[in-house]
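Re: export button greyed out
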Amino acid sequence: MNTDDLVRHLAKETRPVGRNSVARRLAIGMAAGGTGSAILILIALGMRPDLGTAMQGTSFWMKWGYTFSLAVAALMTTAQLARPDSGRLRGLWLLVIPVVLLAGIGFLELARTPSSQWLAMWLGESWKSCPWMVLSLSAPIFAGLLWSFRRLAPTRLRAAGAAAGLSAGAFAATVYCLHCPEVSAIFVLTWYSLGIVLATLLGMLVGPRLLRW
Amino acid sequence: MQTTEEHLRALMIDGLNGDAKAHEALLRLLVPLLRGFYRRRLRGADDDVEDMVQETLIAVHTRRATYDRERPFTAWLYAVARYKMIDHLRRVGRLRPIEDYDEWLTAADFEASSIARLDVDDLLQGLPDKQARAIRATRIEGLSVAEAASAEGIGESDVKVSVHRGLKALMGRVQGALR
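Workaround output, generated via the alternate export path:
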């Protein structure tokens, strides 16, 4: 096709683009993927039976707050990396806040618990499976974000892949709260975070291949 | 026909607001810019230039949501063009080592120099062809007067006079614009 025809052809489909369309598109991808992960939990794992009562306690909201705020901060970074002229990243330090807060809670928890119980508290019932659950549940969310990126223009693919992986991992952990009965902060800080870090590394690994455009 | 940053940016924003005419005008204005961009960088690969131009136009169109209305348009455009070129070089895996390219492509002053080049192109367009060519050869491409003269098939003094007159005219125009 010659260039003139191409220009005419492209201009024919000029649709208005909203100001926040990058953020909106990423949010849609993440929400759609998150729905997929939630369905996966319902089918394969089942909700925690005491979800209703757990939602009245603080530990549920501690876990949820940690993972969800991490997911939001990660998505903000992803949105910056989705533009070709991303330049210096702003707000990266926001990612540290949830970690520091949760570490603080964990420290208080340890101070209040006799040291003989520390190990049991740290390992909980599910430390072996938890990181892998988070990693698996991040797959549908990562796929949702890949859909978002089809209209976006990252130029630092490794960084964008890592940011998308981090968003997917953190949001997968948020969804995993529906199933996971663990209550201690140091458990969440270690094993949830490990799953999230694995998702980030995987995103970094596949970013250059899957985010090319 | 004007290809300044403000003009392109205004067209882009109108296009984002759904104005198909502005969007078409923008894409048309980008064609010569992109041709220049790729021709300078893909020396000896003329077949690829038009492919790259088209591929970049498609990317500009389909991924225009990533342009932030508050930021310079040319910087965004060249970021897209540069990405497309690095991707192209990586894909064909030939020409020069890519690390080398990456380095000078991402040099901090790259965008600034591209924009400056646009301005120079603009200014030179207002001159008679001969004067513009003489200035481009001796002052921008760095040829000597003798080289420029033999390339054009004219005398050395002819080149000197053209450069002199052209620069004088440009000076007058720039000063006039500043006043």
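The interface with chain A takes residues 15-21, 23-24, 27-28, 31, 50, 53-54, 57-59, 61-69, 71, 75-76, 79-80, 82-83, 87 of chain B (CB under 8 Å). The button fix ships in the next patch.
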